[in-house]
Amino acid sequence: MDDATDLREAGLRVTAARLAILEAVRAGDHSDAEHIARDVRAKVGHVSTQAVYDALHALTGARLLRRIEPAGSAARYEARVGDNHHHLVCRRCGAVADTDCVVGLAPCLVPSDTHGFTVDEAEVVFWGVCPQCQVGSGDPRGDGAAKRAP
Amino acid sequence: MDDATDLREAGLRVTAARLAILEAVRAGDHSDAEHIARDVRAKVGHVSTQAVYDALHALTGARLLRRIEPAGSAARYEARVGDNHHHLVCRRCGAVADTDCVVGLAPCLVPSDTHGFTVDEAEVVFWGVCPQCQVGSGDPRGDGAAKRAP
DNA sequence: TCCTTTTCTTGAGTCACTCCAGTTTGTGTA
DNA sequence: TACACAAACTGGAGTGACTCAAGAAAAGGA
């Protein structure tokens, strides 16, 4: 798969910044905007934070990236799109891991009572403690699920 | 059930503000902090925003309230605690509705691969469109999820 | 190569909290 | 009832994560 082609097919222009963002998201593991911006800058030099947000929005809109937002932390981005998978989030350090959908198709679950809503997606977040934090048993970063410390 | 007793049992002091907050959360349907603060002020006169946040934290910590945070909107609070239910969220106006858990006990789902995480809760959010928004097909101006544009 | 449209930059602004230090108040004890 | 003290509250400042706006730069079709 070629990023430039993907961008063009989505009707977006191909720029070094976007290519770098796509690459950074793929390399990073559910990175947040700040993290991605840092990676991109390391690759292509100066890129403004706003440009990163803008690109992230465009890429998310074009379904080239997926945005997830676990409660209590900033938005994260991942390159795994097109399938309907869910996430494991660590309550202590905020680490995120993918886990496959139990059912396969969205919405993979049906609520017991829809209250008249037309449901098109079921988002499942599994809260728990990651292996690293289990080992370090104490709170490795104090701040709970807040800001993420890799 | 008596709110004052609940507070005392949780080791919290009983104040007019806290009682009003509990009542406001119960009356409102998944209100956010701003909303709750307004209701509380209407009831007991002046209460600072910080006092509201502080009380909301204390009450959430004491399991008298539950905090939910749908992506893209501010934290909401609800008084239904103790059971493991899930939420329906409207993509247009941000309205939130409860739906019972299909299983009953947390975690009601088990991920296909835990990646070593010890999972204690599965949070399920069903995204869709509420009845009002289906009818008005535009944005009805729900009290809203604030910033989520259609 | 030119021109249009999209992207990016700089800078200011907003929202939803959080932190801090000092004051007030609810409660258990005397 | 009075008192002491920790919990609760106040006002103000600060922070992180974005969002908005306007002008400059770059991509890509003609």
Q: How would you portray this structure in words?
A:
Two copies of one chain form a homodimer. Helix content of chain A is 33%, strand content 19%. In chain A, a hairpin with a 5-residue loop joins strand 4 and strand 5. The first copy, chain A, has 150 residues and is of the alpha+beta class. Chain A is globular and about 45 Å long. Chain A is built from five helices and six strands. Chain A has two domains: 3-68, Winged helix-like DNA-binding domain superfamily/Winged helix DNA-binding domain (Arc Repressor Mutant, subunit A), CATH 1.10.10; 83-150, Dna Ligase, domain 1. In chain A, the strands form two sheets. A three-stranded antiparallel β-sheet of chain A has the order 1-3-2. Chain A binds chain B through residues 67-69, 71-72, 75, 86, 88, 90, 97, 99-102, 107, 109, 111-131, 134, and chain B through 67-69, 71-72, 75, 86, 88, 90, 97, 99-102, 107, 109-131, 134. Chain B binds a DNA duplex (30 and 30 nucleotides) through helix 4.
Task: For this entry, give a set of tags.
homodimer; 150 residues; alpha+beta; Arc Repressor Mutant, subunit A; Dna Ligase, domain 1; three-stranded antiparallel β-sheet; disordered C terminus; DNA-binding; iron (chains A, B); transcription regulation (chains A, B); DNA-binding (chains A, B); zinc (chains A, B)
